Amino acid sequence: MQDKKMIFSGVQPSGCITLGNYIGAIKNWVKLQKDYRCIYSVVDMHSITVRQNPKELRARALQFLALYMACGIDPDESIMFFQSHVPAHAELSWVLSCNTYMGELSRMTQFKDKSAKHEDNINAGLFTYPVLMAADILLYGTDLVPVGVDQKQHLELARDIAIRFNHLYGDTFTVPEGYIPPVGARVMSLQDPTSKMSKSDPNPNGYIWVLDEPDVIVKKLKKAVTDSEGVIEYREGKHGVNNLLSIYGAIVGKTPREAALEFEGQGYGNLKMRVAEAVCEELRPVQEKYKAISEDKSYLESVYKAGAEKAGELAEKTLRKVYDKVGFVLR
Ligand code: TYM
What we know:
Elements: E1 6-11, H1 19-32, E2 37-42, H2 44-47, H3 54-71, E3 79-82, H4 88-97, H5 102-106, H6 109-117, H7 124-138, E4 144-146, H8 152-169, E5 177-179, H9 214-222, H10 239-252, H11 256-262, H12 268-295, H13 297-326
Parallel strand pairs: 1-2, 2-3, 4-5
Helix pairs in contact: 3-12, 4-7, 4-13, 7-8, 9-12, 10-11, 10-12
């Protein structure tokens, strides 16, 4: 176990886990958990950069943990925990923020997007959020970070911070690599296929929730925006069709081009139905498992408590090393 490489990743419990989160990240977490030592967190501290209803946030965080397991993360193999249960994340974040430049953070496209969306609440946390994400990753000597393409810029910043810190204070952090899937790294909205499928989309027809009932999935896919050409091809400009082919491809293990060949000469209606069938088949076992797991509150509690303990031990070790390097008097 010890010589396995480390993986860290997480999802923010804001909104619900979408097909985008599943295909872009969680499906790969499951795939990678046999060959790596994996830590998967419900990153609740990240989600309060946008205002949350406290009661809903708490319920959602538990739901996310149950969904991680329902998707196939095995608590006997991987560590799962709530970010707020391991104080080292916030502590390392402070040290790293003193080694991150305002200019670097100002260039983050997600900050620009989110501050445009939440003009009434452009808080400091929203700005420094990528530093907390760097702390999440660097605390565990992470080698690989499986994420969708939208997190690439944040990951590059985490690498830059690690390299800078190592240069200033001597070798401390592993410089992480990203794992971005070849297909499905950016699942697009079903209603506006030029923007990514997002769990905070106010229009639920734009996304598929992993717990959507099959008839809802079919309805949403039937309504998916395509184009007026009526030709199934994977090419530049055909955003809606490309998205459907990518979703299908990511699920059945084909490239979108191979998927397009499978549907050559067929109509969009048929394509949508076949994508819906594939999505429903993929999510059926997740939904069944979720039902059983989410009802067992004491099991959930045992998983997140054991997870926080294991993660906390690893994180504390790194934090102590960092505190020593920057010159704090050790406790
Ligand atoms: P979040 O919560 O927005 O998304 C969780 C994961 O899902 C991926 N993803 C997508 N992939 C494909 N298509 C989409 N439409 C789509 N939407 C989301 C994201 O790339 C991500 O992998 N900052 C992170 C959470 C985080 C984190 C970390 C991740 C905090 N600390 C440390 C990795 C390592 C976030 O907001 O992801």
